[in-house]
Amino acid sequence: MSIFYPVRILFIATLSLALFSCNEKETFSSAPISDYLPLVAKKYITYRLDSTVFTNFGRSTEIHKYQVKHVIDTLITDNQGRPSYRVYRYLNDSTASQTWQPAGSYFITPLNDQLEIVEDNLRFIKMHLPLRSGFSWKGNKYLPADPYGPLFNFSNDDSMEDWDFFYDGEAGSFSYRNQNYADVFSVEQADESFNVPITTPTAYAAKSRSVEKYAKSIGLVYREFELWEYQPNPGGAGGPYKTGFGITMWMIDHN
Predict the structure, then answer these.
(1) Where is 186: in which H helix or E strand?
(2) Are 30 and 18 in contact (CB under 8 A)?
(3) SS3 20
(4) Structural domain boundaries of the chain?
(5) If you placed Cys at 106, which of 26, 43, 119, 248 could pair as Cys (CB 3.0 to 4.6 Å)?
(6) Which residue, among 82, 57, 60, 85, has the nearest Cα to 73 in the 3D structure?
(7) 227: left (phi over 0), alpha (psi -120 to 50) or beta
């Protein structure tokens, strides 16, 4: 027998194993999205909400404080014939000492690999499988050009459809305003700013910040969403001004 025969057999076996390994598909076990946004009729979450508004023609900044309650109503069919959940909103003062007032509704549509929310005729992909650190998707790809154009004259929304949503790390603990949450996935959406804080009042400034956090078995527990720009307006009547909005909301109660 040739001394090279065993070597040849070993080489062929090794090559076959390598080819088999290259043809194997990578598998990744992901928790379902429903773990982080359970959709059950009558489920509610109550948030404290701080709303930033620019008044006096954009020359003044005010923070309006509320409580807002989101209540899942029932399963319906959306305008594409897909099963969706209708969610009602109710608004109160910051201590909930008044009567809850209706404040609109929106729809949540769970699909096989993603979760969509339609609000004010704007459709967002809020979560997407797999739930894995660094995984990215175009969460605003269904938005029209300048989706907030009818309300705000700014450039922050010019390319919102290109925003890259991604999971910033694996699920972990999160704390905000003395509220502690466990097993939370953070969905980063936008974090861009220029001349913020405004250290040069004679220069343009802008901020686009959007992040959401979802806790297992609860749902959305934190949201920060700011879109505004500052115009120095040299020589213009009234001087510098801001246009846009901002909200920060965090869960304080749920069932």
Answers:
(1) strand 179-194
(2) no
(3) helix
(4) 33-254
(5) 119
(6) 85
(7) beta
Bond preceding residue 102 cis, omega within 30 of 0: no
What token pair was written down for 156? Answer: 């922050």
3-class secondary structure, 168? coil
Q: List, for residues 88-129, the tens digit of each pLDDT value.
A: 999 999 999 999 999 999 999 999 999 999 999 999 999 999
Share of the chain above pLDDT 90, in %: 84
The b-or-e profile of 198-215 (16+ CB within 10 A means b, else e) is beeeeeebbbbbbbbbbb
Q: Of all helices (H) and strands (E), which one includes residue 8? A: helix 4-23
Q: With 0-12 CB in 10 A as exposed, 13-18 as middle and 19+ as buried, what is 37?
A: buried
Q: Which single residue is written with the structure tokens 């982080």?
A: 36
The amino acid sitting at 238 is G
**Which DSSP letter does residue 11 get?**
H
Q: What is the DSSP string of 33-50?
A: GGGTS---TT-EEEEEEE
Q: What is the DSSP string of 143-159?
A: PPSSTTTTT---STTTT
How remote is the C-alpha of 215 from its chain's centroid?
A: 13
Q: Tokens in use for 8?
A: 């040849």
Residue type, 139: G
With a threshold of 0.70, does the pTM exceed it?
yes
Say which DSSP state 25 is in.
P
